[in-house]
Design a protein that fits this description.
The complex is a heterodimer.
Chain A (H helix, E strand, L loop, with lengths): L5 H23 L2 H23 L4 H6 L2 H12 L6 H13 L15 H12 L22 H6 L6 H7 L11 H17 L6 H16 L12 H5 L4 H8 L10 H21 L6 H27 L7
Chain B lengths: L10 E6 L22 E2 L5 E5 L5 E2 L6 E2 L6 E2 L10 E10 L7 E9 L19 H10 L12 H11 L3 E5 L9 H24 L3 E6 L4 H13 L6 E6 L9 H9 L14 E5 H13 L5 E7 L7 E6 L14 E4 L6 E2 L12 E5 L14 H5 L6 H10 L2 H6 L10 H5 L6 H58 L3
Parallel strand pairs in B: 1-11, 2-14, 9-10, 9-12, 10-11, 13-17
Antiparallel strand pairs in B: 3-8, 4-6, 5-7, 7-8, 13-14, 15-16, 15-17
The chains are: A mainly alpha, B alpha/beta.
Chain lengths: 314, 483
């Protein structure tokens, strides 16, 4: 068994992001690439300054690749071609407030990428609407995304809104469904390479499906969408495999991770269905992060005792 | 198991172990080198015999000693590996994981190797178990697999609590170590004799041998020795262990062979088991049949910095720097995974099964990213990442809750850590500071109790004095006020 070091793990994550990123570029234009370049550049600069301020060794911390992964996730989550000041604010907040304020890599309570993303999302809601997917047809119809039209539909049944709106694809959001599929493939790669634990994504997707099925009443105007629609819309797969699985901010025990994933999946569905945002992965992940230590504290103890030999073994 | 209880039913073929242990890992050590012959190292000029706490030297500075002559009295005596003169008793660095100084006897070798006449016995079966245990103690035998528990105490304990199964650990403790394999290939007969003797002493009816299935030479030697041994009432079973580190650690071995998971701190004898490794059984057989005390052992020398890699017969007390090619290399006592660095001045002890010489680490550690790879490989199984956090803050409650005392110090977590964090060393340090804290608390409690006792006694004395003074006063007053 070879022990990969942190840099190898981060490189694997970046490679696994590729299918999703390429599909995102195909459907939404090359704005994602400028996002990536700018966010990673800002992130490395910010990390450099923050480490210098904290009088910590700079080179090993930047070389381990965690900054690149954090900023890449921000860049991917933000709409393509986001204005550079927003990217700057998101990157600096992610690393400063999300990571170094807690003591640096490994000590942060919240997922830094989601801290940065959430801060700009609540600060600049108008600037952060996703453009419709165009694919190769540059002048396709503009319109709201699937989750937006689904959320703000008035008295339409599921079938009606599905037919009426341009934002809908074959089984999820138009274009977005393929991007989600790309991140799913990347996530399966990470599982195959044993970089991430299966529990968080599986529990999260099952949690979403359970809420979706509970709220599905045959497709009336009050009905929630199908599990498949929710799985392949918004940032579901990116969150399930790349964001919620961050080991630093998720519980350490197996059962704790199942609970954590299910919690995030449930909260995502609650925000999408009854909350104030069409998608809500950032808030769901941050909420999950906030309770992760609690889960470790209580589930963790039970779990440790289960793993340890019971007194009755004879 | 359904075999009849006769020696003819002994299964000599290797079966896979019936159970498995948690975690562990496959290690890619390349093609395992075939066990070569055991090399004999040249006799050094000086030997340094470490004294254990409670040992009293029974020689003086200037005493001339013979080979195998007893040097100390105590729970486990030490003996002279060769003849020479005791020139010094001085503090030298110990080979324990916690650095410290211990008294050592310096034996200046005269090169004549004048031996004492040993008290050999032809057939231990004719002797009472207590008599045999005395012989084992007098030969200074301790566990040679690492922990160094006195063998006579283990046997006495097993006799007290009743043991029906002897487990022979024929698996190497660590990858890259081949000392036990080489010893089996060289002299499996003595190992089997030792095992039979132990079974007779403690009354074990069955003997389970755990061995790595790839050690074909050792398995063949063991089978030949088993086939050649005299008849006894012990059922023998040979099992091939799972090929994962740490299959050879006592607790994992017991788990794999019997399915029993020992509780932390629980001795195997509490479950009716007694466990010996090959080297100890060999030394025990030498002691019983030839009266030969434990003064040398087989150890593996490995790593880039080894002068002559391979398995050696080394003398107890031999300076370890004689096995090293170059002082730039770091000396690790024990195997490459669970071993610990020791200083240049340390000497081979009865527990030294391997000396590993490696390049000093150059890459610094990264922060922990809580990836839980350590938890996946922990054989106990614990969450080393949590223990690391608790260790760094010396959070006693946390360490207890997450089970630091269950750690078997196998070092599997160190090997898989992507951030190169020295987990094992941190845990050893935390364990020793916890032990020190407990000890000082115990001392403080004792002192407080003593002082309270003293105060009670003092106040009682004062009260008694005051009472008697008043009584005197009253008497005097009574006489003055009298008529």
């Amino acid at each position: 068994m070879t022990a990969p070091d942190t840099r190898r793990i981060m490189c694997a994550v970046l490679v696994a992001l590729l299918p999703g990123v390429l599909l995102q570029c195909y459907w939404f234009g090359l704005g994602t690439l400028t996002n990536l370049g700018l966010a990673v550049g800002f992130g490395i600069a910010a990390e450099f300054l923050l480490l210098r301020c904290r009088a910590r060794p700079v080179l090993p911390a930047i070389a381990d690749g965690t900054v690149v992964v954090t900023c890449s996730l921000i860049a991917i989550a933000l709409p393509p071609g986001t204005a550079w000041p927003i990217l700057l604010i998101a990157s600096v907040t992610a690393l400063g407030l999300g990571k170094h304020a807690y003591g640096g890599t490994g000590y942060n309570l919240f997922n830094p990428a989601m801290v940065g993303y959430a801060v700009v999302l609540v600060s600049f809601p108008a600037a952060l609407g996703w453009p419709p997917a165009t694919g190769l047809e540059i002048d396709a119809a503009t319109g709201p995304t699937l989750l937006e039209s689904f959320k703000y539909r008035s008295a339409q049944t599921v079938a009606e809104v599905w037919q009426a709106e341009a934002g809908f694809g074959r089984f999820g959001g138009f274009g977005v469904e393929w991007v989600n599929l790309g991140y799913l493939v990347g996530g399966l790669l990470l599982l195959a390479w044993r970089i991430i634990d299966w529990r968080v994504p599986v529990a999260m997707l099952i949690g979403m499906a359970v809420i979706a099925m509970l709220g599905y009443d045959g497709g009336s105007s009050a009905s929630l969408g199908s599990p498949v629609m929710h799985w392949f819309s918004g940032a579901t797969m990116l969150t399930a495999f790349f964001i919620a699985t961050d080991p630093v901010t998720c519980p350490s025990s197996g059962r704790g991770r199942l609970l954590f994933g299910a919690l995030i999946g449930t909260v995502i569905m609650m925000i999408r269905s009854w909350g104030g945002y069409p998608d809500g992965v950032a808030f769901a992940v941050l909420l999950g992060n906030a309770v992760a230590p609690l889960i470790d504290r209580y589930i963790g103890i039970v779990d440790t005792q289960r793993r340890l030999p019971p007194d009755s073994v004879g | 198991m359904a075999q009849p209880m006769t020696s003819t039913a002994t299964r000599l073929e290797l079966e896979p172990a019936p159970f498995d242990f948690h975690g562990g890992m496959r290690l890619d050590t390349g093609e395992p080198a075939p066990p070569g012959s055991i090399k004999t190292i040249h006799m050094p000029d000086r030997l340094y015999i470490e004294l254990q706490p409670g040992d009293r030297p029974c020689v003086r500075i200037g005493t001339h000693v013979l080979t195998h002559q007893r040097l100390t009295d105590g729970d486990v005596p030490s003996h002279a590996p060769t003849s020479g003169r005791i020139t010094d008793i001085a503090l030298r660095p110990s080979i324990a994981p916690t650095p410290g100084q211990v008294p050592n006897l310096t034996l200046e070798v005269d090169g004549l190797d004048e031996a004492m006449v040993l008290d050999a016995i032809a057939d231990p079966a004719g002797h009472a178990p207590a008599d045999l245990i005395d012989r084992i103690r007098d030969a200074g035998i301790t566990g040679m697999g690492g922990a160094g528990f006195p063998t006579h105490r283990k046997l006495e304990e097993a006799r007290r609590s009743g043991v029906d199964t002897l487990i022979v650990n024929a698996a190497e403790c660590e990858p890259g170590v081949r000392a036990d394999t080489s010893l089996l290939v060289a002299d499996a007969d003595s190992v089997v004799q030792g095992a039979s003797a132990v079974a007779a002493i403690v009354g074990a009816r069955r003997c389970l041998v755990g061995i790595e299935p790839h050690n074909a030479d050792a398995i063949a030697a063991l089978r030949a020795a088993l086939a050649a041994r005299g008849s006894d009432e012990v059922r023998w079973h040979c099992y091939g262990l799972p090929e994962r580190y740490p299959a050879g650690s006592e607790r994992s071995l017991i788990r794999s062979l019997t399915g029993i998971q020992l509780r932390p701190g629980e001795r195997p004898s509490a479950q009716g088991l007694i466990c010996f490794n090959v080297a100890t059984l060999h030394a025990l057989a030498r002691a019983l049949y030839f009266g030969e005390p434990l003064t040398r052992r087989v150890l593996s020398v490995s790593g880039e910095g080894a002068l002559d890699p391979g398995d050696h017969w080394a003398f107890i007390g031999q300076p370890i720097r004689e096995f090293r090619a170059d002082p730039r290399f770091q000396t690790v006592h024990g195997g490459p995974l669970a071993g610990w660095p020791v200083g240049d001045e340390a000497a081979v002890a009865k527990t030294t099964f391997c000396l590993h010489f490696r390049q000093r680490a150059t890459l610094s550690e990264d922060p922990c990213i809580r990836c839980q790879r350590c938890a996946d490989v922990c054989p106990e199984p614990l969450y080393p990442e949590r223990l690391l956090r608790h260790s760094r803050t010396l959070n006693v409650d946390g360490l207890q809750r997450d089970g630091l005392d269950h750690c078997v110090e196998c070092g599997a977590c160190d090997t898989v850590c992507p951030s190169r964090i020295p987990l094992l060393a941190t845990f050893r340090e935390a364990k020793s500071s916890l032990a020190a804290a407990t000890q000082s608390t115990a001392r403080a409690v004792e002192a407080r109790a003593r002082s309270r006792l003293h105060e009670t006694r003092e106040s009682a004395r004062q009260r008694a004095t005051a009472a008697s003074r008043q009584a005197r006063l009253r008497r005097r007053r009574a006489t003055h006020d009298g008529p």
